[in-house]
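User: Thanks for the earlier help. One more: Putative acetyltransferase. Can you show the sequence and predicted structure together?

Assistant: Of course, both are below.
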Amino acid sequence: MQRLAWQEYSFRLHCSVMSKTSHTFDFRPTNERDFSYIARLNFLTDTFGDEHGELSDGFDKDTDFYVHSWKPEDGFVIFDEHYIPAGGIWWTWGDEQHHGRGFVDAAYPEIAIAVEARFGGNGLAGELFRRCFERLEAEGVPGVSLCVSDDNDRAQHVYRRLGFELVHQSEHGYQVMQKVF
């Protein structure tokens, strides 16, 4: 089998916990070829993973920041052993004039994460966060921020468990949270 170039730089995680089948996943840093997949993941964050979900009123504005302002080296994506995309985490850098909903400070990138529904329950989100935090902390970044919908109790619980704290509650139905390294 021919190996893809990025596999030389990928990390492997074997998952069998909480899953009926065993999967092996490759994690790799994002690159310019991942633009359309980052756009898909952004869609999944907006619809809470619902393929048929309605887009939020702010989707186009959010996409402008979280997708079109994304730099190809800022993130990680996951593929299973069949090269089927399983999810990713990416971050964007904002400032006072141009930022997303989770903006706290220009020194803190805003992160976004999504795991494809078929691969949920394999610990992929936790591993994506771990790799993201490890890399950004090694680069001297003081922390990260994000926004989460008031309707997404599951994500709020995960973020608090990972050390995120509430910065402020928006009147538009979401919370801004940050994690300091």
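User: Great, one quick takeaway?

Assistant: The longest helix spans residues 124-138.
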